[in-house]
Please model this.
Amino acid sequence: MNKYELAVVLSSAISDEERAAALEKVQDFISRDGGTVLDVDDWGKKKLAYEIQKMSEGFYYFIRFESEPSVPAQVEENIRLMEQVLRFLCISREE
Model:
């Protein structure tokens, strides 16, 4: 099992319930594909470096997980279809 970190920026225009549901959905994508979520860091609402979809703020989350090497690509494919997600990035962690 390899370790990964997924950074997700959610829209600031959605409600707290929608944001929680979107975060839960991302975690479900990881576990459904065979990964294990280790930790979720909530950085809260931060100013974006540049406007994305006419928004200047977003909610930042960092999800650390373990999985097989094929899982991050499947997770990214599913996240790409979510309207609430402004940006995401999955990287391999060396520990």
The helical segments are 16-32, 71-79. The longest helix spans residues 16-32.
